[in-house]
Amino acid sequence: MKRFNYEPASRVKEYVNGMDFRYYKPERLIIDSIDSRLDSDEKKVRFYIMDRIIENGMPFNFAVIPEAMQKSLNMTEGMIRETIDSLAAKNAAVSDENQNINFIYPVSGFPTNHHIELADGREFSAMCAVDGMGCAFTFRQDIKLTSSCSQCGEQVRVEISNGEIVNLLPEDAHVLHVDLNKNQNWSGSC
Hints:
The chain is an alpha+beta fold. It has helices at 9-17, 40-56, 67-73, 77-89, 129-138; strands at 60-61, 93-95, 100-104, 107-108, 115-118, 123-126, 143-148, 155-161, 164-169.
């Protein structure tokens, strides 16, 4: 697999600041990534859980912390539980009363209309189409996104290669963007 070009946040901010928007100043549309808000243990646990959701095609249950997880992450059960709590507190993961992590940005434990195919061959559902596009940066590899417009139902396809959109169907597709800076829990805005 080829090396993925991951643009530093400063380059993205510079690019967006040079654009004109009708309703918002550019700085209102720039948000910190989930990854940038996490410490190293949170990042390790997040990726482990995302990988398990993708591998199993279902939410990750943490009622029992598998020994394999503890060994793989070099963390105790208590450390992993604390880290899962921290991921939830930072709105990076959404769990239920049965100790299932149903969503961990950008991966959904349930089927959605937003299908992602990674360059490494893995496939899964994203929480929304914008999160789906972000998978290219989360997993640092090329992606193909197949989704549908929430307004008209028309199929939308996006292919991102080396950090850039290289294929978009329909060619005049647009993203309806909400001001995510107004919300801490983005899952309520997707």
